[in-house]
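Subgroup meeting minutes
Present: P.N., E.W., G.H.
Scribe: E.W.

1. P.N. recapped why we're keeping a running log of single-chain structure predictions: easier to compare across weeks, and new members can see raw inputs and outputs side by side.
2. G.H. added today's entry (432 aa).
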Amino acid sequence: MVNRRFKKMGGQLMDEPLDIFLSYSRDDSARAELVRDKLEALGLKVFFDAEGIDAGAEFPMVIDKAVRSAKCVLGLWSKSALQSRWVRIESRIGLDHSKLVAAVIDGTRPEDLPAEFYNVNVEDLTTFNGQADHEGWVRIQRAIGRRVGRQDLAQARTARAAAPPPPPPAPRYEPSYEQAPTQSQRQSGGGLSPLIYALIGGAAVAAVAFFVLRDGRDTQHTAPAATEQAAIETQAPVEGAPAPPTVTDDAAARQRAADEARAREQAAAEQTQRQEAEVQSSWTACNAGELSVCRRLASAYPNHPIIGRVNARIEQLTQPVAADLSGGWRGYYAQGASRTNFAAEFRGASGEFRGRMSEPANFGDGSSRTLYANVAGRTFADGRVEFVKTYDGTAGVSHSVRYEGRISDDGRTITGVWVLSGGRDQFSMSRN
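Output recorded in log:
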């Protein structure tokens, strides 16, 4: 069960302050590496678990320390990440410490994320292939900048937003058509012929006659005739002028506003109904002993009236009980189609136990035919059993594996799954 990803790791990142903890599903490693490279190019220190853990370190403890110490947690969500327990846990820690930044990378809808992340702003990096001016990537930079104290990132802008305004149009030159008279025109009195003078005099006489006749007509009429008034009142409006408002338009606007208000009220009522149905369904599973459902319910609806019962159930389910696992056990763990047998010896009381396990050396440096591991774990009121197996260094193997199972009613069998970054599968064990 060695995790090949951790065989040649350095510990340099864990010895320095971290800017970003990158949380992602192992199925999305290629996309995550692209994001990591772009972040490091911005001068940020990134915890990327394929290279940030010392050989021999206990993986869950190192991950927990890194995600809590980082200034920002960047969660990359995808269909695969939705199935990842670790992505959810890491993002939840980031949310609880107000340092979570979230993005989808494969078209997953933000509303598909677990309920506790419904109020988180989720950016879209589905089409991001490293473009510096990608709108989703620029918003990610701004969110990270605010959390790690980088003002240059917090004020990042897209190329379109950062472009300077276009220059004002150049002043337009309008040539003047009033030309100064030439020297010959000035010498000849402006150059006007006798015919022109005659035409100007005739136009002046006609103008005087027009104003005399118009003044005489105005003294005979103090108001337009009825037929003229009717023509004025019925003439068509000037083209391009806005039409005056009508009573019908006002009524239609009020009706639209009322319809929109009713639609919003109905949507809010439907949302409340869906949430209440989800609360009741989750409470049924929680009350039946599903601890993960209880925790999700408490996180998503902290002000719901049912929260008191939920917290009480969580406390009950997380109390260790004095299940006695002392004695010898034999079992197997699966890796795909193959199985590896193991033997275990446990001792303990009050819900906690310790012990040793041994198994054939199917991996390692070949210096031993058997691998040995130390075990520490707990049992719970709902029948759950959890323990961590840490190889003791034999044959160069020293990583940790987490086991999560459930004990049978007669206390003789434990079945469940083992979990390691990059994989998980089934295990089963029975008393000797």
